[in-house]
Every structure is written in C-alpha cells, then in structure tokens.
Amino acid sequence: MEQTLSTPKPRNKMNLPNRLTMFRMILVPLMVTVSSFDAWLPGWNYYVAAIFFIADMTDILDGYIARKRNLVTNFGKFMDPIADKLLFCSAFIMMTYMHMLNPILCIIFVGREIIVSGFRLVTANSGKVIAANWLGKLKSGLQVAAILATLLGNPFFSRWNFPFDFGLMCTAAVFTIWSAVDYIVANRNAVNWN
Question: What is the dihedral of CA 130, 133, 138, 141, to 10 degrees?
Fold first, then answer.
C-alpha cells in the first residue's frame, strides 16, 4: 500500500516586534510585584523605575523594528496598544496605592485610556484606522517622564524642595485631557451619534 507523505506545515513563529510586545506585558506584573516588596527591599522604587523604563523602551523598539523590517502584523496592531495601556495604567494604579500619586490624577490617566479605547472600538466599525498624532505622543512622553520622576523621588530638585515631579504629573494630566478631547473631536464623524 502506497503511503503519501504530507509536507509539514511551516510553523508560524512570532516575530521580534511581537516578542518585544509580549515581553513588555510580562514586565508589568514583575513591576507591580517588586513594588509590593517596599517594606523590606531598600531602593525598591529604583528597581520599579528601571523595569518601567525598560518596558517603555520595548514599545519604541518594537515599533521601529516593525516599520523598518516590514514586520507589521495584525497581532502587533492589536496587542501593542493593549500592552501600552496595561503598562501605564498599572503604573498609575500602583503609584496611587503607594501614596505616590493623587487619586484624582490616577482617574484622569486611567479614565482617558478607557474612554479613548472605547471610542476607538466604535470608530473601528466604520473601517477607519486612526494613527496616533503628535499630541498623543507628547502626552505619552510627559507621562513617562512624570512616572520616572515620581518613582525616583524627584531627582535633581528634591534638595530645593521644588515639587518638579508633581508639576510634571499635573502637566501630563493636562495634556492627557487635551489629547482625549482632540482625539474625539477630530474623529467625531466616524461615529454614528444617532
């Protein structure tokens, strides 16, 4: 009896940008876990800041590699923004729990992500893909700087008792609100309001 040999299907391997995205998601619970060791781990905030910084750098790196090597995938388009929101929202909630962030500011930051994500889902039904604009990128940059400044204990300014970290966080909150309003207004025509 003659047997036919079937050619094995090629394995669908995850590309480098998507691996970086998954790595960023793995760093989130690690960051939160390290923060829970504050009672007995000296310098815990520096470790948390380092983990957050590395995670944020993977976001820049995976996007650069995906565009440069033409490795943009549907998986990446879906998971990359989720990984970003998970990282930032976890950092804000963790800092609020650690009494390092005002709860009102936390609500602004996390609430913005929920509102914009919901709005993006609605606009996706119309087939419109909305790319991040300069205001959204500026908002993200300010949030990164504010988170790091707060976690590191207001470096360079603490000796003068100047609340640079709090001022930076408030500035980030203003741009967070502004970017959300700008996003909704700019894309209002993609939503069926009736």
Answer: 50
